[in-house]
Write a structure and sequence with these properties.
Helix content: 40-55%
Structural class: alpha+beta
Radius of gyration: 32 Å
Bound molecules: iron/sulfur cluster
Number of strands: 19
Distance between the termini: 99 Å
Strand content: 15-25%
Length: 456
């Protein structure tokens, strides 16, 4: 019987899944979410804010840009903290809403279910037609459909590969690879094709295995979910004992599940949600849609499969946030506070001033004392900065040995100088000193160090 048919099929290498084309209210919402996310994914490397692309994740040069904010290698701690925030957020989100991220936001699912799978339905038809096509002998029709599908898969994989590289190396560099002779960008050119074939392999062959086996996030479910987590679940209290609808057979003493199997047939990971929460469930909600359609037809209330906590299914307890959810939210809040204060304190220019190693103080003929220093200035912006380096004590003098007044964009410069202090301004063997770096009459950076002199 079709209703009982599993949506998996034996193939030489692995079990291929033929999920039935989903439809319904939640699927329509997912489509809109995916359009917005796809638009963002493809446009973020192309849109520029303040001369920098909106999102850049250049791990090679350790340069990261988010909405105009540039993080250089010196800001790596901020980037690490941002990653930690994302991790805590995902953990917190999972404790409350299960694997909803996987089914609705993860780029793997968005591309697989909303791009590649839809092309497959368009060319090869719904699950049963696909199954038949794969089982039949090769003929002109099959060759045409398969070649068209895989050609389109390859073209889209090529676009995804370019988009992926635009995030990593930047869209300007990618444009150069595309427009300049290949001999000047051999590694870039090869990368585009390597990633094209990787994405093609993932979306045409590996597919849901990424979510069910490879992705470490999926493996974490067992640790993160608890009885209070809202997950896509089958309300067994209401659904069992299940019974087929048959003319003339009274099923009023049975549960609401008519064992039609539609929830299994639409599942992109090939599981039966009626067996309970499983690691393979990506919370795509396709089974909720299909079961709701069935409930509508048989005049039963919706949401036999829905977003439920185990506590609701077993004891009909309404949803409430558990202790763990409050705990993770509090941790998230604290880390966010630390991150925001660091961002607030972050300056466009970072200055380090160190006394030259192996030197001591010098007494000048006029009685003033000098110390020799080396300074390094780092420009974290994408604009050259003309600067003035001075001590914040107007009585001090600076005698440059190596002078610089231009800080190149995203670069650094060195300055070496004597700081000369009058004896009356010394507070002892060690005196705290502070330097200011000004640009356009604004202080853009400060640096503190100590000044050595004769013990008093
Ligand atoms: S849970 Fe719903 S969709 Fe699944 S078999 Fe039962 S009635 Fe059909
Ligand atoms: S069980 Fe339902 S929500 Fe989970 S992956 Fe399958 S169809 Fe999606």
């Amino acid at each position: 019987m079709i209703a009982k048919q599993q949506n998996k099929e034996k193939s030489k290498g692995r079990n291929f899944i033929y999920p039935k084309k989903p439809s319904g209210k939640l699927y329509n919402y997912r489509k809109w979410v995916s359009y917005v996310l796809l638009l963002f994914l493809f446009s973020a490397p192309l849109v520029k804010i303040g001369g920098e692309q909106m999102v850049l994740l250049n791990f090679i040069e350790r340069k990261f840009v988010f909405f105009g904010l540039i993080f250089t290698p010196q800001d790596f701690y901020l980037f690490a903290l941002a990653m930690l925030i994302m991790l805590i957020f995902i953990v917190c989100f999972t404790v409350i809403l299960g694997r909803l991220f996987c089914g609705w936001i993860c780029p793997q699912t968005i591309f697989m279910e909303m791009v590649f799978r839809r092309i497959e339905y368009w060319i090869e038809g719904d699950a049963n037609q696909q199954r038949k096509l794969d089982a039949q002998e090769w003929n002109a029709n099959k060759i045409f459909k398969k070649v068209t599908k895989h050609f389109l898969f390859l073209v889209i994989s090529f676009f995804i590969s370019n988009m992926f590289l635009a995030y990593i190396i930047g869209s300007d560099q990618l444009y150069k690879i595309m427009t300049e002779p290949i001999s000047q960008h051999v590694s870039g050119f090869l990368s585009i094709w390597v990633f094209t074939f990787v994405f093609y392999g993932v979306f045409s062959y590996v597919r849901e295995v990424v979510c069910t086996v490879i992705c470490p996030y999926g493996r974490l479910q067992g640790v993160l979910l608890d009885n209070e987590t809202l997950v896509v679940a089958y309300d067994e209290t209401r659904g069992e004992p299940r019974a087929f609808l048959q003319k003339g057979v009274d099923t009023s003493d049975k549960g609401d599940c008519i064992d039609c199997g539609l929830c299994v047939q639409v599942c992109p990971t090939g599981i039966d949600i009626r067996k309970g929460t499983q690691l393979e469930c990506v919370n795509c909600t396709a089974c909720i849609d299909s079961c709701n359609e069935v409930m509508l037809k048989i005049n039963k209330p919706k949401n036999l499969i829905g977003f439920f906590s185990q506590e609701y299914i077993k004891d009909r307890k309404p949803f409430k946030l558990g202790l763990r959810a409050y705990g993770y939210t509090a941790v998230l809040f604290v880390v966010l506070l630390v991150f925001s204060s660091l961002i607030y304190k972050r300056t466009d220019v970072e200055t380090t001033v160190l006394r030259a190693s192996g030197t001591t103080f010098q007494t000048r003929p006029d009685g003033s004392i000098s110390n020799l220093y080396n300074a390094e200035l780092i420009n974290k912006t994408n604009k050259d900065i003309k600067f003035v380096f001075k001590s914040n004590n107007p009585d001090d003098k600076i005698e440059f040995i190596q002078k610089s007044s231009l800080l190149p964009k995203e670069g650094s410069t060195q300055v070496a100088f004597f700081l000369i202090k009058k004896e009356k301004n010394l507070t002892g063997f060690k005196t705290d000193v502070e330097f200011e770096i000004t640009a356009d009459n604004k202080v853009v950076s400060k640096a503190k160090t100590t000044f050595f002199s004769q013990p008093k």
